[in-house]
Amino acid sequence: MAVTLTPVLDIPMVRPGDDLAGLLIAACERNALAPADGDVLVVAQKIVSKAEGRYVDLAKIRPSPRAAGLAAEVNKDPRLVEVILAESRRVVRQRPGVLIVEHRLGFIMANAGVDRSNIDPDVAAEPVLLLPSDPDASAAGLRARIAAHFRTRPGVIITDSWGRAWRRGTVGVALGVAGLPALMDMRGRPDLFGHALRVTQTGFADEIASAASLIMGGLDDPRRGWGRRDETWTFMAALAALGGETWFALGDGDLATHLERTRRRAAGEALSAITADFCRRLKIATRLVPMTDDTVRTRLRTDMGWLDFQDYFVRRRCAPTVLELAYDGAATARSHPDVLAALRDPRLRAVVICPSNPFLSIEPILAVPGMREAIARSAAPVVAVSPIIAGRAVKGPTAKMMCELGVEVSATAVARRYQDLLDAYVVDRADAAEVAELGIPVTLAHTLMATLADREELARRVLGSADAAAKATA
């Protein structure tokens, strides 16, 4: 049996009163996904609670004497503790920073599931979010709508992330289930040696919820393509009120990331170690390694003088004419040893140069001593995807910068910047004629990625191109 996990991308920010089933159906269709019989749609509790309007405004809460006393023990806001108690049957354990309760639905959990993170500040003065009133009923309602629309019989799980006793880290847990068993009762069945099982019950829905949580980080904003989903902007609003500069607009969550990373770097911690720790804490399963632990800055000489990348790209919105680029610090930087080791690993299937801006995204990496040579000698084929389609950039200032720097705006011109590295090149079908003379294998594909299906198909084409290049040189 095989299990496939497929993310449903591009779900908009959910607000009270939204038709969540309609939003999920529309997102499935945008991603070319149609839930079939036996498929299971795993939905984060937070968006269910948001759609159901399960908000409480702490500004309107008056804590009871019991809440005030308990808050003093656990070092929490007394108003928050009052809300937690209202959602609970009993307190199971408390100590500074920890409040474990039995939720009114029977769950043993921290803070009764009352959450303050990733909440739209416009819904109330000081909003917190509760669990759904009846998660099973919520799951059943979603399933009925989805099943009717797609004319299939999928299951639905509403999931939340919980900590575990005596273990670090959170896992996905099923709060509500419809269309599949929550438990698989194995009692009475024989084990491998014929002995009847007496106590074994498998948490079937919990296991699915936990597996789905691997791809449900849900931190990214699908509409903007950068930043955090459901971001708040309290810091920037306060800064604007004080007359500060707000051109580099970062949400509160992003600012927390930058502040903590800066603090830890100033304390002497390596960027790679900080990045690995952040990935672990944010449940990002993919391993991320920076090109170097040293400082490298992209700067641009423009008709307005030398500008830092952020000034050019964000503050000035790429308007100045670019005359030259410099990667300050690159000449003395050291390639990260884990990157070099990955490039040498015989298990490596492909090195993919993504369709990013060559000057701002790719060439700063290649400027680090030894990096270009390591990629050229890598254990796997190197495949690039063109960021140019029919003489135009898909997004960003790539085409504008190429013109200003005297480089032809074409897929061929991009390939020539990497030609000493490439084993294969993937271009849009619109550029088939112009790349015929490159002298390297070319794969034609639909490279404009508007949907999840587009992204997956392009990824398959890229890997197929790499596999073909590896086979040709074997």
Compact overview of the structure:
The chain is of the alpha/beta class. The protein folds into two domains: 20-215, CofE-like (60s Ribosomal Protein L30, Chain: A, 2-Layer Sandwich); 289-473, CofD-like domains (Rossmann fold, 3-Layer(aba) Sandwich).
Can you put this structure into words, describing what you see?
The chain is globular and about 70 Å long. The chain starts with 19 loop residues before the first helix and ends with a helix. The mean pLDDT is 89. With 474 residues, the chain is α/β, with parallel strands linked by helices. It has two domains: 196 residues, CofE-like (60s Ribosomal Protein L30, Chain: A, 2-Layer Sandwich), CATH 3.30.1330; 185 residues, 3-Layer(aba) Sandwich (Rossmann fold), CATH 3.40.50.10680. The longest helix has 22 residues. It contains 16 helices and 19 strands.
User: Helix amount, in percent?
Assistant: 25-40%
Shape: globular
The total beta strand count reads 19
What is the mean pLDDT? 89
Report Rg.
26 Å
- Counted up, domains total 2
CATH architect. name of the largest domain: 2-Layer Sandwich
Largest sheet: 4 strands, parallel
Q: Tell me what portion of residues adopts beta-strand conformation.
A: 15-25%
Q: What is the name of the CATH superfamily of the largest domain?
A: CofE-like
Report the CATH C-level class of the largest domain.
Alpha Beta
What secondary-structure arrangement, pairings included, does this model have?
Elements: H1 20-30, E1 40-44, H2 45-51, E2 55-57, H3 65-74, H4 78-86, E3 88-95, E4 98-103, E5 108-110, E6 127-129, H5 135-150, E7 155-164, E8 167-178, E9 184-185, E10 201-202, H6 204-212, H7 234-241, H8 252-266, H9 271-281, E11 297-302, E12 305-308, H10 309-315, E13 322-328, H11 337-344, E14 351-353, H12 358-366, H13 371-376, E15 382-385, E16 388-389, E17 392-393, H14 398-404, H15 411-418, E18 424-428, E19 442-445, H16 452-473
Parallel strand pairs: 1-7, 14-15, 15-18, 18-19
Antiparallel strand pairs: 2-6, 3-4, 4-5, 7-8, 9-10, 11-12, 11-13, 16-17
Helix pairs in contact: 1-5, 3-4, 8-9
